Amino acid sequence: MKSILNIAQIWYNELRCICKDPGILMFILFVPFAYPLLYSYIYTNEVVNDVPVAVIDECNNSLSREFIRNIDASSDVKIVAHCNSMDEANELLMGQKTYGIIKIPASFSSDLYHGEQTRVGVYCDMGKMLNYKAILLTTTNVALAMNKDIKVERHLPATTQRQEEITKMPVEYEHVPLYNPQSGFAAFLIPPVLILIIQQTIFLGIGMSMGDSRERNRGSVIPFNKWYKNPVHIVFGKGLPYFFLYILIAVYMFTVVTRIFTLPQLGDYWTFIAFIVPYLLACIFMGMVLSSLVYRREDCIMLFVFMSVPLLFLSGLSYPGASIPEFLKYISYVFPSTFGTNGYVRITAMGASLQDVRTEYCGLWIQTGIYFVMACLYYRHQILNIVKKVKPTL
What is the pTM of this model? Predict the structure, then answer.
């Protein structure tokens, strides 16, 4: 009973400090509720349409004009200018009137007529990856379609229309991107970003709270009174306000945000709850451990904010996991976001069960145990330091 009272008192003190501090409230309330809406709204359209492109047709015959018409007929690219030289096209590109240049060489038709391989130049503005993707994929698809027609007409003449169809496509197939049928950027990026926002805002909130405690308690993260004598009580008491708050935030992201912006949501609700519990605990306890490096309120911003983008890449979702060096993979296992983002994406987008994400689930529980012990050891050290300071005065 006494332990429960101690934890409750520490919980109350921590909650009171949070509610009185506008900076902490901004990081743990405003950012988790507002950022998901902002990020999702930016990428609402998922894909881009009618990306403006300039064309340089040095061949200028029926075959090259057909190639250009097929590109313009696609929904992703729009031909807005026909230029006579690369300098003229480059001016449009530099002025952002176009985002790409397609150059058809003078030998385009003659190369094909003589059965030789020809080349079409595609130059894209890499500042916007979605535009680059639209231009490159459209040009590639048009080239592949024209290759089939040329193969039938000039090299493998058929006697019937059905034979032509078989020659063009011996094996009929239908391309459907699994778990992201639109190949949209929001469905790919937003789910892992939501989980990363939870981790980073927890780190910032706990870090700012510890920095504030050091400033108020002359360098100590805990006050000297009867409630703060057991490190286990301190860890639980300080962690409970964040845990209960972020359970609500996680449910808000899983339900409200995903439904408003029609993001993938195939996972079971209770599977998500069971998975998010160890993730939140691991983030809270790791936040306490990392916050031992925070001596001023502002330190946590410099310490944690810059980590967001590297952690997104280290998770293996934004950058191919198979291409990440082994030593960086081991570093990524230190952070809950690596297991959290991979497990969350598989639950929401693929409808995975806990058994399907058991590696990530077990990894989060292992992190929870390790960081809980480390947090207890850190607060035990703080308690001993306070005792040493008090004894000489007695």
Answer: 0.79
